[in-house]
Amino acid sequence: MLVIVGGLIVLGSVVGGYIMEHGNLSVLFQPAEVVIIFGAAIGALVIASPIHVLKGVIKGAISTITGGKEYSKKDYLDILLLLSELFTKIRKEGLISIEQDVEEPENSAILSKYPKFIKNHHALALLTDTLRTVMTTTVSPYELESLLDTEIETLHETEAAPVKNLNTIADSLPGLGIVAAVLGVVLTMGKMKEPPEVIGHSVGAALVGTFMGVLMCYGFVGPLAKRLEAKVNQEKEYLQVIKSALIAFVSGAAPQIAVEFARRNIPPHLRPTFHELEEELRALKSGR
To answer: Which residues are listed as membrane-spanning (predicted)?
Structure first.
C-alpha cells in the first residue's frame, strides 16, 4: 500500500507542478515513446535474466506493489515461542522426541500452532534440516554455524538476483529515454519543411522520451528495486534469528538462554521486549 501511496505522491507532484505552470497534459501523452522505452526495457530484462530470475523480478515487483510479505513483531514473537517449545521438549524428552515434528511439520502439535511459519518455506527448511542434521550426526557448533551461514548466504544471493536485475533496468531507463529522444529528433529532421509549430510539437514529443526515462528511473523503478532489496534483507535477518537460537542451543545453552540469543538478534524496531516475551511464555505454559 505504501508503494502505491508513494507512487501517487511522485506522480501528483510532477504532474501537479507541470499543471501549475500551465503545462499542456496532452503533450505528455506520447504512446510511441512509451512503446520504445518500456518495450526496450522489458527486452533488456529478458536478455539479462535467466528464467528463474525473470520470474523472481515479476513476482517480487508484484509482491512489493501489493504489500506482500513483510515481517512484523508478531512474526518474531511467534518464532521465539516456537523455538522455546521445541528446545524445551528436546531438553525434557530428548532429541529423538521431535522427530515427528521435523518430518511432518503440518501434523506437529508444536509447529501447527504457527501456520504462517509453516508457509515460510525457507525458514521451515532451515529449521527442520538443521534439526535433522543435529539428530543424525555429531556436528559441532562451529561446523553447524558455518553450515547455516553457507545456506543463508546462498538463499540471500538467490533472492537478491532479481533485485540486481531490476536495478540494472532502472539505471538503463534514462539511456533508453535518450534513445527515444534521438529517434524523435531523427523524425523531426524529416519535417524541416513543415511549419514551425509542427517542428516544435515534434521536438517536444522527442523530449518527452527523455523525461519519461528519467522519471521512471528515479521516481518508480529505482525506488521499487530498493523496496524489494529491503524485503530480501528482512528475509535474511529472520533466518539469522533462527540460526542464532539453534547455534546457542546446540552449544549447550538452556532453552530460555538460546531464545534470548535469538531475541537480541531481532532488529530493534521489531524486537519484543524481555517482559513481552516472558509474558507470552508464561501464557504458553499455562495453556492460555
So the answer is: 27-48, 173-192, 198-221
3-state DSSP helix/strand/coil % of the chain, to nearest 5: 85, 0, 15
* 24 alpha-carbon distance from chain centroid: 38
Question: Do residues 162 and 227 make contact, with C-beta atoms less than 8 angstroms apart?
Answer: no
Other CB atoms within 10 A of residue 62 CB: 10
Q: What confidence tens digit (pLDDT) does each residue in 208-220 have?
A: 888 999 999 999 9
> Three cell numbers at 260?
534470548
What's the rounded Cα separation, in Å, for the pair 240 and 70? Answer: 16
Q: What is the pTM of this model?
A: 0.85
Question: 524486537: which residue's cell?
Answer: 271
Quote the CA–CA distance of 285 and 282 in Å, as a whole number: 5
Identity of residue 157: E
How far is CA 28 from each of CA 17, 65, 205, 245, rounded to the nearest angstrom? 13, 25, 7, 56
CA atoms within 13 A on the CB side of 119: 6
The answer to whether 88 and 259 have CB atoms below 8 angstroms apart is no
- Cα–Cα distance, 10 to 158 (Å, whole number): 31
Q: What is the rounded CA–CA span in Å between residue 85 and residue 195?
A: 81
**How many Å apart are CA 190 and CA 177, to the nearest integer?**
20
Q: Within the chain, what is the greatest distance between any pair of CA atoms?
A: 91
pLDDT digits (tens, 9 = 90+) for 220-252: 999 999 999 999 999 999 999 999 999 999 999
196 vs 149: CA distance, rounded Å? 66
Packing angle, helices 196-215 and 141-189, rounded to 10: 180
